[in-house]
Amino acid sequence: MNELNLASTPRDTSLPDARVRRRSLIAACSAHAVHDGLTDVIYVLLPIWQSQFAISYAMVGLLRGSYSGMMAGFQLLASRLARRWGRERMLIGGTALAGCAYLVAGQAGGLPVLLVALLLGGLGASTQHPLASSLVTDAHEQGGGVKEALAQYNFAGDIGKTLIPGLVGLLLVVVSWETSATLIGLLGLAAAAMLWWLIPARSSAAAVKAKQARAVTGAGSPGGLLALQFTGTLDSAVRMGFLTFLPFLLKSKGAGTAGIGIALSLLFVGGAFGKLLCGYLGARIGMMKTVWLTESATALLILAAVWLPLSGLMLMLPLLGLALNGTSSVLYGVVPDLAGPDKRDHAFALFYTGTIGGGALAPIVFGYLGDVAGIPVATMTLAALLLLTLPLSWRVQRGLNTACKP
User: Fold this and answer.
1) At residue 215, does pLDDT exceed 60?
2) DSSP type of residue 253
3) Cβ-proximal residues to 261 (8 Å cutoff; 6+ apart), any chain
4) Which UniProt keywords apply (predicted)?
5) d(Cα 66, Cα 55) in Å, to the nearest integer?
6) pLDDT of 291 above 70
7) Element (H, E) at 68
8) How many whole angstroms separate alpha carbon 118 and alpha carbon 45?
9) What is the pLDDT of residues 77-88, one digit of tens each?
């Protein structure tokens, strides 16, 4: 009876589908904002932990690396477990685990407990990127607008990176870090509860429809996906390497601590809007044209950052941030097109693992080059390395052409 009613009133079917897309996107954006905020708030807490526990810089790096390492290393496992236990259940459980980890950190009386808490937090965070990305993709595939929706999803992550660490920084003025960590944990648990309410029950049905559609439209392109993996890894490596060197470039040009802070804010604001705008641009003019535009502009602006005086560098930083971060949204947007049927969770997990891994290794490798040859040479090498993404994006486009064939 319900099937007859739905069939006789097509308008009634479109409204629920639109509601599923909207609620799925809100859920994924909320998860991205909270998880990225919980990940980057560690930067605010690290100096306090160093002072309280009297630890070395190497141990500070271990604390930071424990969270990001667990997050990167377990994304593939999270995508596999989602097939058995369900994507929604894994995403909600991972968010709750990240919140519980901060509750444990808030009670930490020593370094071992704090380290365990951060490992648990990274484990919980490993579920977010691959599963929330797939949730957005499957919900929007039938109605269109996948790339635009993923651009909004990526933009939400930068909002979380900006708001949550900033609010915690203000909160630390009036309360202890233990209380702040406890409140962060409660935020994670509240986000998990919100996801349980937000993620629509019909999202699983939408995923089934999406798989059926993919089986008809194409089987993906393993070669194109591999080229995309290398493109994303290089893009992330250059981005993280440049962010590492930028404060030193600014300092060499006469910027003080306040000036460096303002410069980074300008770069991050441009980057946040770059993720949103370039995602839409990629949907309009295509992946390869957008990547060639953004990566070429990024390479030229990085070279300009070496030679420009401080005032010129400050003026161009929002534009540099837009190009530097914008490419990532374009690349995320084509992962679903290159993944084979029923392999999107795995493809997103693989892609995010590579980009996070490349971003983690780049400061070490190029930091060594900076010690040997100087910061300007290392920065210009980053710009040259970025040009390798141009032929790679051409290979990705060939993969897209193949994947879209019936």
Assistant:
1) no
2) T
3) none
4) Membrane, Transmembrane, Transmembrane helix
5) 15
6) yes
7) helix 57-73
8) 12
9) 888 888 888 888
305/315 Cα distance (integer angstroms): 10
> What confidence score (pLDDT) does residue 201 get?
64
**Residue 384 corresponds to which tokens in the numbers above?**
């040259």
What does 276-296 look like in DSSP terms, one character per residue? HHHHHHHHHH-HHHHHHHHHH
The reply to whether 219-403 shares the fold of 2-214 is yes
Torsion of CA 363, 231, 353, 152, to 10 degrees: 100
| Residues 181, 176: Cα–Cα separation, whole Å | 9
Tell me the average pLDDT across 291-297: 94
Inter-CA distances, 361 with 111, 119, 146, 365, Å: 25, 19, 31, 6
- Does the pLDDT at position 131 exceed 50? yes
Rounded to whole angstroms, the Cα distance separating 103 from 107 reads 7
Report residue 244 as tokens: 């590492």
pLDDT level of residue 246 (50, 70, 90 thresholds): confident
- Can you tell me the distance from the alpha carbon of 115 to that of 110, in angstroms, rounded to the nearest whole number? 9
Superfamily of domain 2-214: MFS general substrate transporter like domains (1.20.1250.20)
Range name among 226-235, 311-320, 332-341, 376-385 with the lowest pLDDT average:
332-341
CA angle 393, 396, 398 (to 5 degrees): 115
Are 329 and 151 a contacting pair, CB within 8 Å? yes
Please report which confidence band the pLDDT of residue 294 belongs to, taking 50, 70 and 90 as the band edges.
very high
Domain spans in the chain, listed from the N-terminal domain onward: 2-214, 219-403
Burial 160-182 (b: 16+ CB within 10 A, else e): bbbebbebbeebeeeeebeebbb
- The CATH number of the domain covering residues in 219-403: 1.20.1250.20
